[in-house]
């Protein structure tokens, strides 16, 4: 499972790299905001590569902060992203171009950045596939912590340092959360069977003994250990 997570992250990195290269080249050739007249092609390529790279980095950070939060908080984070990016862009332009200065230029730039950001997110929202989630109540709240592409009925959760490796029928993802908090949030949907493992009730296929230890085989093929302190609860639930 760790390899699957790594490959997924590599895929996301490749997509971000492709977006960065494409937008940098397009902007360098087009030369918006006066860069066509002020710089040669090589200078524009360096300039826009930096601007686009910083924009993607800030947007990734903003999306991470907004994940799972309320609409008002997400809107506030979005406004903060636009102001931070446009202000940094304005300061850079003021240092590089003599004709670029003043509040009017900053306001114009902020409006452009805001409109472009809103348009991009609107397009992403429109084309993003809907992943059905067989959940309600607390489980739905937990699902919102996961990336859209892996939101599906849960199979198991494994604690890894300060993170949880959440395995669903669509794949797996790491989230920053304590296992005890996740178990409490998912009460009634499964149970903790080990200090590092939580299992979904409907995902258990069979029990087995392995080197004197009780194990539960899950629907993804993984064998989850049942510790002695949780053995009685697992027996009462009918898993052993």
**Number of domains as seen in the coordinates:** 2
What is the CA–CA distance across the termini?
25 Å
Largest sheet: 5 strands, antiparallel
Output mean pLDDT: 81
How does the helix and strand content classify structurally? alpha+beta
Number of helices: 8
Identify the strand order in the major beta sheet.
Answer: 3-2-1-5-4
Give, in order, the helices and strands. HHHHHHEEEHEEEEEH
Structure summary, number of beta strands: 8
Structure description:
With 240 residues, the protein is of the alpha+beta class. It has 2 domains: 2-127, no CATH class; 138-236, OB fold (Dihydrolipoamide Acetyltransferase, E2P) (Beta Barrel), CATH 2.40.50. Helix content is 55%, strand content 19%. Helix 1 crosses helix 3 and helix 4 crosses helix 5 (103-127).
Quick take:
With 240 residues, the chain is of the alpha+beta class.
Q: How are the elements arranged and paired?
A:
Blueprint: H1 2-30, H2 35-38, H3 41-66, H4 71-96, H5 103-127, H6 138-143, E1 154-160, E2 163-168, E3 171-176, H7 179-185, E4 190-194, E5 197-200, E6 204-210, E7 213-218, E8 223-226, H8 228-236
Antiparallel strand pairs: 1-2, 1-5, 2-3, 4-5, 6-7, 7-8
């Amino acid at each position: 499972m760790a390899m699957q997570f790594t490959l997924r992250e590599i895929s996301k990195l490749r997509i971000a790299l492709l977006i960065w290269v494409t937008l940098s080249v397009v902007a360098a050739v087009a030369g918006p905001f006066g860069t066509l007249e002020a710089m040669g092609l090589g200078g524009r390529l360096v300039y826009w590569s930096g601007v686009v790279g910083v924009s993607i980095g800030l947007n990734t950070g903003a999306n991470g902060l907004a994940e799972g939060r309320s609409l008002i908080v997400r809107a506030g984070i979005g406004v903060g992203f636009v102001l931070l990016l446009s202000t940094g862009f304005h300061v850079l332009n003021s240092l590089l171009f003599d004709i670029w200065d003043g509040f009017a230029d900053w306001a114009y730039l902020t409006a452009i950045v805001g409109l472009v950001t809103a348009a991009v997110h609107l397009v992403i929202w429109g084309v993003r596939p809907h992943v059905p989630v067989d959940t309600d109540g607390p489980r739905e709240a937990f699902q919102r912590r996961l990336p859209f592409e892996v939101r599906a009925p849960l199979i198991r959760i494994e604690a890894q340092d300060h993170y949880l490796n959440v395995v669903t029928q669509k794949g797996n993802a790491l989230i920053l959360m304590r296992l005890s908090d996740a178990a409490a949030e998912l009460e009634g949907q499964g149970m903790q069977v080990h200090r590092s493992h939580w299992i979904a009730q409907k995902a258990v296929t069979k029990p087995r003994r392995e080197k004197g230890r009780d194990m539960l085989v899950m629907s993804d093929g993984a064998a989850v250990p049942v510790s002695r302190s949780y053995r009685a609860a697992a027996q009462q639930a009918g898993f052993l």
